[in-house]
Amino acid sequence: METLDLLLHPVRLRIVHAMSGADTRTTSDLCARLPDVPKTTLYRHVGLLAEAGVLEVAEERRTRGAVERYYRLRRERTVIDAAAAASMSLDDHRNGFASAMAVLQAEFNAYLDRAGADPAADSVGYRQGTLWLNSEELAEVIDAVRKIFASMAGNEPAPGRRPHLLSAILFPTEEPQRGTDDQR
User: Fold this and answer.
1) For residue 74, what are the domain limits?
2) Average pLDDT, rounded, for the chain
3) Residue-wise over 118-153: b if at least 16 C-beta within 10 A, else e?
């Protein structure tokens, strides 16, 4: 299965998110973290991710007569690089965006369904705004966001840290005016 097809699926993307902060997790752990996903569906998608090398078996333990696998996420296999993104068709982008939004909706609902969910106390935000940018300003914004992500991407789980899902969405809302330098 191609990396784009593999990762741009709502259930597999949620599994990748669930695995991102953990050293290892079992499928039982994942079932507990994603209770809205049927177990058979989750097991099938874990199998696909393992077969593709996105998840690797870190350890196997015998538990009550069955072998339980502990999976580890191979982060380097979860990257859709610039070349792969550039090769995506418009339908690939449409499908990828739909998957990302489905994951965002499912994760947000899971957060709200937790006992003690408190959006105000947890600094939950879902703001949108329009920025009027030329090509250079757009490049500055993208660079600044990348730097913020990069500065925190290496953070490991630790006391006082909780995982937060941050989704950046950026696209033009109008066609460029004729004769501007922003036509691409």
Assistant:
1) 3-115
2) 89
3) eeeeeeeeeeeeeeeeeeeeeeeeeeeeeeeeeeee
